[in-house]
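Incident log, entry 3
Record: Polymerase beta nucleotidyltransferase domain-containing protein (104 residues)
Problem: checksum mismatch between cached and fresh output.
Input:
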Amino acid sequence: MASNIQKIVDTIVREFKPEKVVLFGSHAWGIPKENSDIDLLVLKKDKNKNTREMSIDLERLLANRNVPLDILVYKPDQVEKRLRINDPFLTKIYKEGKLLYEQK
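Fresh output:
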């Protein structure tokens, strides 16, 4: 499954050009089951699209994958705001998730 995750991340980085990709959920902090989905948090700046539009773009990009995916797309400023108010969900992702890509 690790190779599947890396292939997906490589595609996201190459085609979607995010600022950051973080793995969370059972693949990051537990022992995934055979049918566990891959949970990814993808951060991308885009002045012309909202997160819903970016999510649709990403779903189309990854439509041919044969593994279950759950991908959350946020703009970096949205995540910063939610972390400042101690959003438990995003705080857990940032503390316990695995950073798979960060734009340099």
